[in-house]
Give the backbone structure.
Amino acid sequence: MRWKMKARVLSNRRIASEVYEMTFEWKGKKPHPGQFLMIDCQGKTFLKRPFSVNDFEEEKMTILYQVRGEGTKNLSQMKEGDILEITGPHGNGFEILEGKRVLIVGGGVGIAPLLYLAKKVKAQKLYIALGFKRETFLVEKFEGLGEVVVTTEEGSTGRKGLVTSVVEEMIGEVDIVYGCGPKPMLKALQEISMKANVLCQISLEEKMACGIGACLGCACKVREDKGFSYKRVCRDGPVFWAEEVLF
Amino acid sequence: MNLSVEIGKIKLKNPVITASGTFGFGREYSEYIDLNKLGAIVVKGLTVKPREGNPPPRLFETASGILNSIGLQNPGVDAFIERELPFLKSFDVPVIVNIAGETVEEFVYMAEKLDIEGIEGIEINVSCPNVKKGGMAFGVNPDDIFDITRKVRKATSKTVIVKLTPNVTDIKVCAKAAEKGGADAISLINTVAGMAVDIDKRRPVFENVIGGLSGPAIKPIALKMVYEVVTVVSIPVIGMGGIMNYKDALEFLIVGARAIAVGTCNFVNPYCTVEIIDGIKKYMEENEIEDINEIIGSIKI
């Protein structure tokens, strides 16, 4: 039986314009990389909001979020000692294959679930490609976990251009790709990996209501033998094999 | 203390049931609550054949509610009987199956198919478009409600519940048509038709354009309609629409609903059904009420 958790905020800081990192106590179930939490936004929104597990260690959970609306705005104003109401961890996370040459690809705030993954993946070789528009964040936490490449579309930091150009260059040197970010990036990852016959898992996002698989609100189209079907991003995902997703 | 109520042939241990479309087939919520505590479970709507449902996005949050455009995704009646019903039968809770069809014949077909052990009731979703009448919902036409109810009534030995749509001019006429057709009970309301626009794309949020509005935003509408229906029919009424806590539930019971269904609240708080049951018990203790039936219909006007 799963229980509603109350979690005390330990820290909540802005790490880029509109991007925050919040750490809170967590005495619940240990998360698997790629899983998410449903967090009550304190009466500012009707529905809870899904947030990827960014990091977890010794009863401390961290989430990364971008302020997009009333809910996340309210979260951004929470202080140390405030109490969150949370259910989770939810969902089907990354399937970690050991001993592989791994490429982790993140785009913008989509890098959120990838830090915990980078810590947990037991790779023979780990490459990390992080793409941003202009302003970067959290890169320092990935340093030391693997070989990190940073791209910015505007060329403000690291390599100028899309992160997918890095993937195209490196795809021949890896056995599996894990990706999370904007839909166009994920679609490109699908194309690149399928062309190179390399395994690829992507973490998807969709509006959610129940977060546990009952309402069928967060539909995602997936390939089937005879056409397609809709899977639930919250329960069957958020991580899917890239080859099965129909964009 | 007695919380037991009767809806047709179904004896519920308490008046709190789940609303169709918000509880799946019970598997997911069984990880959160003891399903045995529920008065009954109304499972998601079934159709004759499997339905994929509508493309995403299917959800849009509104002030105090949500719009949904799920499109009745379900595995079909046969797969339900084969794969989901055995799971539900492992609990001591009455199972009520919501059925959705495109023609009267489809409703009858499913009612016959579901006349089996383990199922206690059939809830007819008359909010479906009738393809033989240009897509007009069955539930807006009293004659259609009567016709479908009468035929389903003949097709099954189970308790027949007709679920009414609120998107009508006079809900009382619709309720009377269902009763006349032989319904054992009426449940209402289904969702209120609504719409939202994506201001960036300047397109409706849903590919289907229209979605169903539910949540606490619609509770005043639901309560008013339950009140109206209770005054014109003799059969039990199951009230639903925006119930979020035991106080909301009591409002419906006081107005005259024999049971209440919890829907959208399940998304916000997977524990809400058992919390509502506990809240009602506490209210009864505090007010020295021994029998839930003392509360039902006790409104003073």
